Amino acid sequence: MLKAEDAFPLPEPLSARHKDSFAYTTMKDRQPVILTKVIDYLFRERKEIAEVYGDDVLEDLKAINELLAQLRYELMTDKPLSPLNESELPDVHDWNHSLEEARFDCAAKHEDCSWFTAPWLLVECYLYRRIKDAFLKGSGTGKLKHFDFFADQKKSSLLDSLSSVRILGNFLLDKLSHLQPGNPDASKTLFFHMVELSLWGNKCDLCISGGNPNAHTSDPLADLDVFRQNILSDHLDDIWSFVKSSMSLGPAEICFIADNAGFELFSDLALADFCVSIGFASKVVFHVKSFPWFVSDTVESDVEFLLKVLEEEGLCSLALRWKSYFETERWSIESDHFWTLSEPFPNMKKIRPLLYERLSRFRLLVVKGDLNYRKLLSDLNWEHHTSFELALRQFHPCALVTLRTMKSDMVAGLRPSVGKNAHTIDPNWMITGKYGLVQFSGRKDTESKCSV
Ligand SMILES: O=P(O)(O)OC[C@@]1(O)O[C@H](CO)[C@@H](O)[C@@H]1O
């Protein structure tokens, strides 16, 4: 198979070194704001936090905020990136290896490896890892080591999205009660809708809004017809052909590499339920983050909170249905520290071979969101018309679908005029979340084992 690096020199990684880039804007404006909001939150809520965890955490909060203030100083004054030196999480070696490689590349350009010279993917992820570091180091009592400092924002975002949740939830329940088993063609249009709903669920995240409230408030079903023209790369037909032919092999295990909690997670569970109900999937695994990440990314407790809210807010039958999926292990949640590294997915086979092997056992991966897309395509500055397959750089544990609204200036797999036309309509087309991609690769690495 043709490798991208054999066809032409690989493009440069996106980096804040380019002052006219979106990477520069995020590192200069968005990241300091997100960090400052964490500091403010811990200070503002210190008494409430102490009520839950005990008064001794007041000292922890002070220490954590000192570490976060130091981190903000390093970011805003573009200091060299320092290695991680605590070893409580299993990722320290991998992180320090990534930092060492970046340092080597910067040295070749006679530069320090800093927030504004290193690859954007590395520094953006590093910020969240360093925030986690502050909690691990600063919590002398140990009580706040696993505190979710973004939980309140995620909860509010879900509660603010309840009207959209109710519309989609009732729609799903109604459609599920009318499915025609044994007649997959009858489900085709609905399958397209469920995929699109999960795609547009990615529109709102709390990172793009710099931690400001960003909920889904419109009617997600009414939006579908309006938004369809904004899907710039649409492989829905290929996905459906794959799903249909796969169904003749018997139900399969599939996996979501999840992104944001709140409405997006709800739309993902709705799609997963649909895949189960039409007989495509026998099991669904949701891979989530193991610590707070990019503000609104899903951690396990966000799934629990979602189910609780559904139960309390008039979608009890859906909550019970999904709870029973989890209880019977038809659905399950997994996590891996690879998701909170800065490494592109094509490096997974080398860095986390067991995870690659695990993914190769699924029939389909659903890769959600903008950051996962950037990692999937290595966050390189691809020509927009580079083929999606080539840009995957041989990441083929199994067939995969990516559902991503565009919130960063990196894309591949567009037909030649598509980007130009979108740019004419909206010069910010790559970063607003208004445009979306549904891209598919049916290829499977023949060297990886397959049990399904
Ligand atoms: O992965 P998600 O939740 O869809 O988006 C994350 C995001 O908001 O954060 C990054 C910018 O800081 C971008 O990659 C993207 O816009």
From TrEMBL:
Q: Which reaction does it catalyse?
A: beta-D-fructose 1-phosphate + H2O = D-fructose + phosphate; beta-D-fructose 6-phosphate = dihydroxyacetone + D-glyceraldehyde 3-phosphate; L-glutamyl-[protein] + S-adenosyl-L-methionine = [protein]-L-glutamate 5-O-methyl ester + S-adenosyl-L-homocysteine
One GO BP annotation here? methylation
This protein's UniProt keywords: Hydrolase, Manganese, Metal-binding, Methyltransferase, Nickel, Transferase
Molecular function GO labels: metal ion binding; phosphatase activity; protein carboxyl O-methyltransferase activity
Q: Which cofactor does it need?
A: Mn(2+); Ni(2+)
Q: Which InterPro entries match?
A: ARMT-1-like_metal-bd_sf, ARMT1, ARMT1-like_metal-bd
Q: Which domain of life is it from?
A: Eukaryota
Q: What's the EC number here?
A: 2.1.1.-, 3.1.3.-
Which stretches are annotated as coiled coil? none
Name any one Pfam family assigned in the record. Answer: ARMT1-like_dom
Gene Ontology CC, one term: nucleus
Domain Damage-control phosphatase ARMT1-like metal-binding per the UniProt entry, residue ranges? 26-417
Q: What is known of its domains?
A: Subfamily III proteins have a conserved RTxK motif about 40-50 residues from the C-terminus; the threonine may be replaced by serine or cysteine.
Name the family the entry cites: Belongs to the damage-control phosphatase family. Sugar phosphate phosphatase III subfamily.
Role according to the record: Metal-dependent phosphatase that shows phosphatase activity against several substrates, including fructose-1-phosphate and fructose-6-phosphate. Its preference for fructose-1-phosphate, a strong glycating agent that causes DNA damage rather than a canonical yeast metabolite, suggests a damage-control function in hexose phosphate metabolism. Has also been shown to have O-methyltransferase activity that methylates glutamate residues of target proteins to form gamma-glutamyl methyl ester residues. Possibly methylates PCNA, suggesting it is involved in the DNA damage response.
The name this protein goes by in its record: Sugar phosphate phosphatase
